[in-house]
Design brief:
Layout (H helix, E strand, L loop, with lengths): L10 E4 L2 E4 L4 H23 L2 E5 L3 H10 L13 E5 L1 E3 L9 H8 L21 H15 L7 E5 L23 E6 L4 E6 L1 H4 L5 E5 L5 H9 L19 E5 L9
Parallel strand pairs: 2-10, 3-4, 3-6, 6-9, 9-10
Antiparallel strand pairs: 1-2, 5-8, 7-8
The structure holds 6-phosphogluconic acid (6PG).
Length: about 260
């Protein structure tokens, strides 16, 4: 895919939100991976590196594993890719629940990344607030223009995104970029990007696939405005619209 070819598939839903539906699951994953590579190539060509924030979730996982396969694994100068995470569970990196571990196991450990360019969220630390501040400082020091090239997100079955869960404190954060967030629904701490962080990215892409997401996707994109109940509904600004990437099944209830 050429640098901007994927943009021809954009559908504008409203001033804050755009949608691409490439087809069934297979076509969808192919499209998402080649789009990812073309965004990365363009960023490397223009600013010398590609800064991306990964997310947890099943769809990104499928995407990560394709990145490590032919023809994609040789398609990029991986030494110029800077990897961050948009959220993390409060577990050490070797835990099966860790988003860091998921990304590594799914594919990134097989790619020739520079270890110095892999920035894990230390969400397992007791001093959570300090760890979150430290992560924000790392981001600000590594991204001189203060902008990610791509922030990847998913949408949970309850409408959450990153670790911005319904009615949690992090939803009201207007200054910090990274914050510790108590998630009562799961009785656990998470660390997460906040809306101010998400909305500074050059591109924010939300990956949603499968029939199980169809109802929620319809509610989020077409339903009544209830951003505290459905945090993913608040994604996107007029200046920086969010891109929803859905497969045919997940988008089947949209008009
Ligand atoms: C996490 C996530 C989370 C995820 C969604 C979607 O750590 O749980 O980052 O926000 O992306 O829950 O996950 P699925 O694609 O697996 O439904």
């Amino acid at each position: 895919m050429s640098a901007t070819a994927w943009e021809n598939h954009l559908r504008t839903l409203d001033p804050r939100r755009q949608l691409i539906v490439p087809g069934d699951k297979e076509a969808y994953l192919d499209f998402c991976v080649s789009q990812w590579i073309s965004i990365a190539k363009q960023a490397i060509a223009t600013c010398g590196h590609f800064a991306v924030a990964l997310s947890g979730g099943s769809t990104p996982k499928a995407l990560f594993s394709r990145l490590a396969q032919d023809p994609y694994k040789d398609a990029l100068d991986w030494g110029k890719v800077l990897i961050f995470w948009s959220d993390e569970r409060s577990v050490p990196p070797e835990d099966p629940d860790s988003n860091y571990r998921m990304a590594m196991d799914a594919g990134f450990s097989q790619l020739p990344l520079n270890p110095e360019n892999i920035f894990r969220m230390h969400a397992e630390e007791e001093a959570r607030e300090e760890a979150a501040h430290r992560y924000e400082q790392v981001i600000r020091s590594k991204l001189p223009e203060g902008r990610f090239d791509l922030i990847m997100l998913g949408m949970g079955d309850d409408g959450h995104t990153a670790s911005l869960f319904p009615h949690t404190e992090a939803l009201g954060e207007n200054e910090r970029w990274v914050i510790e967030n108590w998630v009562e629904q799961k009785k656990t701490w998470r660390m997460t990007f906040t809306y101010p962080c998400i909305h500074q990215a050059r591109l924010v892409a939300v990956y949603v696939s499968g029939a199980g997401k169809a109802e929620m996707l319809k509610r989020v994109l077409k339903g009544t405005d209830e951003p505290l109940e459905l945090p993913s509904q608040r994604l996107g600004t007029v200046e920086n619209p969010v891109l929803w990437m859905a497969d045919a099944e997940a988008s089947s209830l949209l008009d």
